[in-house]
Design goal:
The protein has 19 helices and 14 strands. The protein is α/β, with parallel strands linked by helices.
């Protein structure tokens, strides 16, 4: 994930997410004014009440009771305003959080596979889960305290200027020191919070990777090395978190010191005015001291908001960087109906890294209804060829055509509906067996689903599950790898597409079941164009054409018998597997 500093675009993006809740924002502002108005009125009436107590036995009780009633009403109005504002702020923050996560997840669906292949899944999930949460927390805190803080500062300044501008001037001159200190610290804490966000994403990615591959870790007794690596990441997380929290926490003590200076200056100047001028009463001095506290308190709160906002901004930058990533190139405008299955690759050139050539000048002709096998050593480009056929990636040069139509001119959805794909790595969603089988054809009948499961030899073990076809599956431990792959095979048999791609589709199945599934595949492949990627050469001996790939090029092609008679690279591969 590319790291950037917050820019005008970041703030525009935040405002764009706030725009649908403009009415709630207006209500929040009005409630903030109500809260601040009630809080600011209390010191004024308290001062008035003090002035009604002139000396022992000289107390204007009727006026005091009246003022107490007014003070109670002001406190109640402020409390209700605060409660209503919190409700609105919560609603805004969590709706924005929901919108951001929705858009981020939707964005992932539209990003090219090259983006996802080049990043740790934990990093991406960390942006959607952790960073979005931190962003919402900062937003909530900001709305709760920023509005009331700014309104309080403005309101107190106006009242103090009206009552005694000389004392207000003293407060006004000292206050910038607090702002300077807060700004000085905040500018330096942002980089620390950004580093914390980056290390947290690295930690999330590592944990996600290790938990997902724990069996491999245990098989190779790599636990100690993992703990050591996690300890190193965790140590960096602790260090940058402590630095960020320490430096950000200095804001509050510094501003409180400045606030104490303000309070002392108001007390001294107010006392001198009360001695020199009888019009400036003790009640006025009390009011001014209360206002000086109310004036300086928001600076402490705002300093805390600024600290939290730095963390929120660092997370917002990562979120909007994801949302701003370039989506897949524009989809084709033509629609591919029911394909005949004639596939042609002409002078294809492609590489994942533009500085390292992978495929160049590749030519393949797959007539409709024929079986084409792709073999070769690891890293020769077999899976890459599949990626180009499915248009997971677009070619850098040349063309891939289906029924004479360049796939770049076809919509991806219409192209992929004509392909059925079974991979070596199985994927089942957290749902019932029925929902997993019918994913490609949700409108299929019960009989068709059961027939496909029987054809894939999956029906017997499905009926032994607690609830049969209605059993919820998806977690790694609920089914064996072989059973999971049988379900994937049944899913593709239910769809019956005109073209098939089988990438080591029977690699996790025992030999006896594999023979049965191969028979089922043979029936399924009749009249369909099939691309079969295989390492076990015994599974592709009946293919109409075998493409032998090496270093991104087709070095040989022909039938199994022709390639053996040729005595080239294919024969070397075959004899390496069947040396006896």
């Amino acid at each position: 994930m590319k790291r950037k500093k917050p820019s005008a675009g970041t703030f525009k993006s935040i405002l764009r997410y706030l725009k649908p809740y403009a009415l709630l924002l207006v209500i929040t502002v009005l409630l903030a004014l109500c809260t601040v108005g009630g809080q600011l009125a209390v010191p004024y009436f308290v001062g008035k009440a003090i002035d009604e107590i002139e000396a022992a036995g000289q107390v204007n009780y009727p006026k005091l009771y009246e003022l107490f009633g007014v003070i109670g009403a002001c406190v109640a109005a402020a409390a209700l305003g605060q409660w209503g504002m919190s409700l609105c702020n919560n609603r805004i923050a969590y709706k924005v959080l929901s919108d951001v996560r929705r858009d981020a997840f939707r964005k992932i669906q539209r990003l090219p596979l090259s983006y996802l292949d080049g990043r740790a899944y934990g990093d991406i999930s960390g942006v959607i889960v952790s960073d979005a949460e931190q962003f919402a927390d900062g937003l909530l805190l900001g709305f709760t305290q920023l509005f009331t803080g700014l309104a309080t500062i403005a309101g107190v300044l106006v009242i103090m200027l009206v009552m005694r501008w000389e004392i207000a001037l003293v407060v006004f001159l000292i206050t910038p020191l607090s702002l300077f200190c807060s700004r000085f610290i905040a500018k330096r804490t942002y980089s620390m919070f950004k580093k914390q966000s980056e290390v947290r994403a690295e930690q999330t990615a590592f944990i996600d990777e290790m938990i997902g591959n724990l069996k491999v870790v245990k098989a190779y007794t790599h636990e100690d090395e993992n703990e050591e690596q996690f300890g190193e990441i965790n140590g960096r997380m602790k260090q940058c978190s402590l630095r960020a929290v320490f430096f950000s926490s200095t804001t509050n003590p510094v501003t409180r010191f400045v606030n104490s200076v303000v309070y002392a200056a108001v007390a001294l100047s107010g006392a001198l005015f009360a001695i020199a001028n009888s019009a400036f009463t003790v009640g006025n001095l009390t009011t001014f001291l209360s206002y000086s506290n109310q004036y300086t308190k928001p600076f402490n709160e705002i300093s805390e908001v600024v600290t939290e906002f730095q963390n929120s901004l660092a997370c917002a930058v990562r979120i909007f960087a994801l949302l701003g990533e370039e989506e897949e190139k524009e989809d084709g405008t033509e629609t591919l109906g029911e394909a005949e299955g004639r596939v042609t690759l002409t002078d294809v050139a492609f590489s994942y890294d533009k500085e390292r050539e992978l495929i160049r000048g590749l030519n393949v002709e797959a007539p409709a209804g024929k079986r084409v096998a792709i073999v070769g050593p690891t890293g020769c480009g077999k899976t890459t060829l599949i990626n180009l056929l499915m248009r997971f990636y677009d070619v850098d040069g040349g063309s891939v055509c289906v029924d004479g139509k360049d796939v770049r001119k076809l919509s991806r959805a219409s192209l992929r509906k004509n392909y059925g794909m079974v991979l070596q790595e199985t994927w089942l969603k957290e749902a019932t067996v029925r929902e997993n089988l019918c994913m490609g054809r949700p409108e299929c009948t019960e009989e068709e689903m059961v027939e496909a499961a029987k054809a894939a030899h999956a029906h017997s073990f499905i009926t032994r599950l607690p609830k049969g076809y209605d059993t919820v599956i998806g977690s790694e431990g609920s089914l064996s790898q072989g059973q999971r792959q049988l379900l994937c095979i049944a899913r593709i048999m239910l769809c019956r597409p005109p073209m098939l791609i089988l990438d080591e589709a029977t690699s996790n199945i025992d030999t006896r079941t594999e023979r049965k599934v191969q028979d089922a595949f043979a029936r399924l492949m009749q009249g369909r164009t099939c691309f079969v990627v295989a390492h076990r050469l015994s599974t592709i001996q009946t293919a109409d054409n075998i493409l032998v790939m090496k270093a991104g090029k087709i070095v040989e092609q022909g039938t199994h018998k022709q390639l053996l008679e040729k005595g080239g690279f294919y024969r070397d591969l075959y004899e390496a597997q069947f040396a006896e």
